[in-house]
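User: Sequence recovery, please. Input:
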């Protein structure tokens, strides 16, 4: 099973296969490769798997995924 996490692009550098972005994952900033998402721009939400953006998504979908992940985290905390 794969898990892709949504994040918001803060800035981009490079082009083509060397294109990358600084991405905000709810306060955690990471560098992400954008080679597979040439349509992604600053302010867009992307799904990231192992440091590579695999799709762009809208802000509503990103919020739904982040809420679902937060629910899982709460369930895990309750079961501990």
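Assistant: Recovered sequence (80 residues):
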């Amino acid at each position: 099973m794969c898990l892709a996490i949504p994040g918001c692009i803060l800035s981009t550098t490079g082009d083509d296969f060397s294109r990358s972005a600084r991405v905000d994952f709810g306060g955690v900033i990471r560098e992400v490769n954008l080679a597979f998402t040439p349509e992604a721009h600053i302010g867009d939400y992307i799904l990231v798997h192992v440091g590579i953006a695999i799709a762009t998504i809208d802000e509503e979908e990103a919020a739904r995924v982040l809420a679902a992940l937060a629910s899982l985290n709460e369930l895990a905390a309750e079961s501990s």
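The CA atoms of residues 7 and 28 lie 9 Å apart.
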